[in-house]
């Protein structure tokens, strides 16, 4: 199956959206309602005639290689105790014309909506105590899954972040590029992580965790660190995340994960980081001091404007 559209792949483009939704509907033998579509550049979702949610994603063929899970949304069904929409069916196909692997998954639809569909969260959402209980239970259950588990039929592949594997080598390289004075970047504890736990992938008033296409093996506390860094423009919310996930964020792995995420934003420049630029630079100082106390006060974090 090949989608023929003479434009670069951008699923926010109505021409692409129509073609992709039609192909996804054919693959799953249903119809979809375009008026319900939620589009990002490389992913697109909409309600089906079965009352389910159909989501299609484009992945560059150059990033699909041995060890990459094309069916991660499907395999996430093995994660017991995690608040996620139930997977029903899926399909995938290669499109050499645009050098993409297309993957479509059908899951239960949830009535709750994403807390911040796009951009940086700058105002504190109203979240019930039951919401935090569900999030905590889900992250605890997820972290209980280890990279070596009979259910994975081998070792759990690395989680992906922005299309690339979340490996020790990548984490160390990023940290050393931005913080060359940091000596030890080794991660000792790995577990299953969502890898993209931001406010666009969390819903309210009920807590559901969406978009499981990147999950896999990652450092302990990586999800808590991702959510905390995404909350830094809203100090009270960031403090609440730190309180709720205190054990993860206080661990060596959680601290390194948070510093890695800060390093990515610092390297991208203030224009990209936006409202997160200043708090990220400030928190990077604190994290460095926690990891390397002898360097405290002598560490300079440079923002890189683009």
If you had to describe this structure to a student in words, what would you say it looks like?
The chain has 306 residues and is an alpha+beta fold. It has ten helices and 13 strands. A hairpin with a 2-residue loop joins strand 9 and strand 10. The protein is globular. The termini are far apart.
Order of helices and strands: HEEEHEEEHEEEEHEEEHHHHHH
Q: What does the main sheet amount to?
A: 5 strands, antiparallel
Tally of alpha and pi helices: 10
Structural class: alpha+beta
Distance between the termini: 40 Å
Radius of gyration: 20 Å
Uncertain segments of ≥5 residues (pLDDT<50)? 1-6, 296-306
Portion in strands: 15-25%
Trace the largest sheet across and list its strands: 1-2-3-5-4
Write the layout of secondary structure elements.
Layout lengths: L13 H15 L9 E2 L3 E5 L4 E9 L11 H4 L11 E9 L4 E9 L4 E2 L14 H15 L4 E2 L4 E2 L4 E2 L2 E2 L2 H11 L11 E4 L9 E2 L11 E4 L2 H9 L4 H10 L1 H5 L1 H17 L1 H4 L3 H15 L15
